[in-house]
Amino acid sequence: MTDESPRQETYVEAAWTRVWKTMLVRGVILVAVVAVLGMGIGYLVSGIEGFNGGAVGGGLAAVFIIVTLVIMYAGRNMGLTAIAGFLGIGFLFKAFIFMIVIWRLKDASWLDGNVAFLTIVVAVIGSSLVEAMTVVKGRVPYVDPDAK
Predict the structure, then answer these.
(1) Which residue from 63, 65, 47, 62 is spatially nearest to 109, judged by alpha carbons?
(2) How far is 41 from 20, CA to CA, in rounded Å?
């Protein structure tokens, strides 16, 4: 016979869930701020092309946060060192995405390249800061006494 009762979440798993939810909330706020400010300032600076550049930057901010959330969710049962390593690999992946996007959009006539570049840089720096703040203030214990 199998036990059909749901397994209780351990203290460490609950701590990682809190960290993940905090990252989700901060990420949504970052994406909203980058997108709204990027599109608004871009529109004021160079019209619809600037608006489109801000939208590209806001979209890239969303991609960066999603990559981080996937890494944190996938590694939630691993150690803190593994999470830090995966986040480092994620940073390299984001840098690769950044270079590809800049390379593909450098001659696009439908957006202002300067607005797009600045918005993307703000998205990269902002997502890195949000990740760092969330992980540093995460308060996840190294040892899980409830684990079996």
Answers:
(1) 47
(2) 31
